[in-house]
Amino acid sequence: MTAPLRRSALVSALAVTTAVVVGGCKPSRPYPLDTLAPTSDLTKAFYDLFVEVTVLDIIVLIVVVAALFLAIAFFSTRTGAARRPSVKHSDMYLEMAWTIIPALILLAITVPTVRTIIKTQPYSWPKDALPVEVIAHQWWWEFHYPTLGVETADEVHIPTGRVIHFELFSKDVIHSFFMPQVGGKRDVIPGQENQITLVANVPGEYYGQCTEFCGDSHANMRFRVFVQSPADFQEWVKHQLEPPVKPTSGPAAAGAKVFANAPCAICHTIRGVSGFSKQYTYGFRGPDLTHFGSRTTLAGAIMDNTPQNVAVWIRNPDEVKPGANMPTLGLSGRELNELVAYLEALK
Ligand code: HEC
Ligand SMILES: [Cu+2]
Fold first, then answer.
1. Mutate to test the pocket of ligand 1, among 175, 268, 280, 310 (most ligand atoms within 8 A of CB)
2. Would you say residue 281 has pLDDT above 50?
3. pTM score
4. In CATH, what class is 250-345?
């Protein structure tokens, strides 16, 4: 009698250890691409589903492992004389049991899964939702706010507590829009409009990343999401709508001239100063630079926006980001420094 008792103690110890290890897997913050730290209704719905299914999985695991250990404990050969298993052609009850039980488990997973799928579809959105157009390019993200007249790149700002309606378009190949803590992931497909609706709840700076392999610099196609209080968001919009800074003296003013004379202007819009012109660029356009200096990152959020990094980028974009669709224009020395001073002045 003591042997099975010791064995059942071992079984319970194993079950408890498993539960503790699995339960302890939730990492501490901050991990920027962590999907277990939801900050919107959308990511919360995914997270809840994940927890529900994981709990069910653990219950199944415990039952199966316990049955296995009990079988080992009670049916192993003890005397050395091999016991032959009974031979049966079939067992209707056993077969029914192993068909019905898995069916019930699958049903238990299906119900919350389908509920989450329905809950996270952008079937309808309220009239006061904020539309944000997301245009994916190899390898950067363009953001338009059609109702606000704002245009920016690689850094999207959204207010808390309001339905955001992302409309996803691609200029070239299939990309995927993913903000692990805020929302997504949804494919961005040329010739088709996909959508995401969500309400963000927690102000902060979050990471985004293209998650569909889209060419050489796929891994360099990142972005940032700034979730702001409605008042801070209004402030940002107001600033973005202001005309660009026009420096009148110093290196920045000289840089404005370099910008106008170099081919930068045919790909980059600076509102009221330059505009993208398709005929020279074979359709490649670059990010709107009207308020470039107010962005914290550049080139698909792969570098911090510092004068040094901007100079490195302009000197040779391809070296920073293999395959980048911005040409190397051979600028260096004073011209380059003036150009950088101008771009950074575009706060
Ligand atoms: C043929 C079009 C083209 C020309 C000409 C061009 N660029 Fe670009 N530029 C791009 C593209 C495309 C990107 C985005 C690259 C990426 O991130 O993959 C870019 C990105 C940038 C960025 C980073 C912007 C951001 O928000 O991430 C800066 C700054 C920039 N260009 C400055 C310049 C300057 C200065 C010149 C002129 C010396 C210039 N560009 C000429 C196409 C062009
Ligand atoms: Cu991509």
1. 268
2. no
3. 0.83
4. mainly beta
